[in-house]
Amino acid sequence: MSVQTQTQARQPHLDVRKLLARAEGARRAGDITGAARDYGTVLSRFPGNPRARKALAAIGPSAASILADKAQQCQQARQLDAAAQHWAEAVALRPEHAGLGISLCRCLLDMGRSNAALEAVNTVLQHNPQDPVALDTKGCILRDLGRLDAARDCHIAAMQHDGDRAGPLNHLGIIAQANGDMQQAADHFTRAIALSPDIVSLHHNLAGCKTYTPDDPHLSQMQEILARRRKDDPELAALHFALFKALDDTGDTDAAFAHLLQGNQLRKAASEFDIAQEAQRFAWYKSLLPDPPKALAPDLIAAPRPVFVVGLPRSGTTLVERILSQSDDTQPAGELSVVPNAVAPLLRRLQGENRPAPSRDDLLELRARIVAGLGRHSDGSAVLIDKMPLNFRWVGLICAAMPEARIVSLRRAPMPVAWSLFRHMFSSPGNGFAYGMADIAAYMLLHRDMMRFWSDRFGAQIVDLAYADLVTDTERTIRRLIAACDLNWTEACLAPQTADAPVLTASAGQVRRGIYRNSDQSWRKYQTQLSPLATALRAAGLS
Fold first, then answer.
1. Helix/strand/coil (H, E, C) string of 381-420?
2. Which residues lie across from 463 on neighbouring strands?
3. CA 362 centroid distance within chain
4. According to DSSP H, which parts of 197-311 are helical?
5. In sequence order, what are the residues at sequence separation of 6 or more whose Cβ sits closer than 8 angstroms to the Cβ of residue 486?
6. Degrees (nearest 5) of the Cα angle 285, 289, 293?
7. What is the pLDDT of residue 331?
């Protein structure tokens, strides 16, 4: 529903003359945005009204600018719903202004609303079909939606209209990396760096898809950039993580770990993560479902039927997704934001109404939201696999609303997971716990206790999977996993490395090696430096 239509729905009793009078009164009083809304409502009813057209043409740019300022303020305060509404109102006033439309797209992407962002960027391209930023943004949205070939075409088109921008090259590199072509990815990242050498994220991306030697010129280039920038610049975190990777490749472990510490310190300083607040949230989530409610519509099966793979990030969820995807008529969808987006309005309602638990109607609405969201990502397969790790927080609500869903809960030895978390720079702000050793240990304990709580209440829907069993007793464990998820067995399930689906996470290289046993030992190279992490894990009872 457009801004004008929303206004019309709220004021059905006002005739055109009264609307025009109110708009002109608001304009005289300095309420430019209010006047613009009323003029817009008049035009939604009578597009040819000359007074409204002339007035809106005069004040539209000013009103859009005011709304854009409000949207930016809301985004800074992380009030994303309000920000998106302000951006949408600004776009309605100036649909030809590409910058406003792209800002709306990016806000919607921050909210995990990729389909809505795609609609918004298509509106921009209707007015500005050759805008390189809009084309590049559309490519990023399509990539998030799993449409990598169409995404690549958009990035190439963006380069054709502006060949001096590093962004499309960077995004082409990400797509190549997702498809397993590390050499092509490195070539794209290298070309992007040549255009914009001071964008440190480009160096981080390049470091992730090549192996370094001590005389590698890129290693020297990164060190030179670091030497001339302020040491407390938060952007330098990406460069420190890249230098860790490069120096780890060369065997200079002391220097590598020093950069890793600095990168984590910068990320932690920029993060708003608070482990005490997180513990309070987890306690609240558990309090919402102290006992399992009666199943909702047990005779109904969502199409597609969902399998959710959950656990701590870096615990093997991508590998499990690829194993499951080798079964017939399944779709690996990657890390979707469907569940968080569906749960958020329910949590806000419960808080606002001070209710201790969701009602049956709440769960039915949550179910409808999840089914609709998954449907927007579906390719028509009978089963869709969502591997968003942090969905473990909502397992109780998922199980209560979708009794046909299966939850694969992945467990892995604490130290390898903690090390993998600490050495990785996440793009999502939702992983703020990963930048401090004590926070990692505390969050791992929260995760363990949360999954024990859900398993006690919804054990029939939850498939407990130990990573150690997966790599030591592979066939029997995978057969049990496939059966527990009500999937069809194929021999291909034993060869996840042959799956052809792209991988848009940091596991892109690892999962193409197949299942191997020594993946949990890489931390031992830094055993001395990681003694504080080992101590924190022991203190949490996780060692």
1. CCEEEECCHHHHHHHHHHHHHCCCCEEEEEECCHHHHHHH
2. 408
3. 25
4. 200-207, 217-228, 236-250, 253-270, 275-287
5. 305, 406
6. 150
7. 95
Number of neighbours of residue 414 by Cβ within 10 angstroms: 23
Sign of the CA dihedral running 73, 77, 81, 82 = negative
CATH top-level class of 277-539:
alpha beta
- Give dist(CA 244, CA 230) in Å, integer: 19
Over residues 471-492, the pLDDT tens digits come to: 899 999 999 999 999 999 999 9
- Matching fold, domains 164-270 and 277-539: no
Using alpha carbons only, how large is the chain's radius of gyration in Å? Answer: 25
User: Which residues have a Cβ under 8 Å from the Cβ of 199 and sit 6 or more positions away?
Assistant: 166, 192, 193
Cα gap 506→325, rounded to integer Å: 19
- Angle formed by the axes of helices 474-484 and 317-325, nearest 10°: 70
Residue 36 token pair:
């613009």
Among all chains, which residue has been given the structure tokens 């995404």?
151
What integer pLDDT is reported at residue 297 of this predicted model? Answer: 60
- Pairwise CA distance, residues 507 & 293, whole Å: 37
CA distances from 25 to 32, 41, 219 (A): 10, 15, 64
Angle at which helices 437-458 and 275-287 pack, to 10 degrees? 0
Amino acid letter at 71?
A: A
The residue type found at 410 is L
Phi, psi angle pair for 207, to nearest 5°: -60, -30
The amino acid occupying position 352 is G
Helix (H) or strand (E) holding 129: none
Residue 231 in 3-state DSSP? coil
Q: In the block, which residue shows the tokens 């003694």?
A: 531
In contact, 309 and 385? CB cutoff 8 Å: yes
- On the CB side of 411, how many CA atoms lie within 13 Å of its CA? 15
Domain ranges of the chain: 164-270, 277-539
How many C-beta neighbours within 10 Å does residue 382 have? 16
356-375, pLDDT tens digit by residue?
999 989 999 999 999 999 99
Query: Which CATH number applies to 164-270?
Result: 1.25.40.10
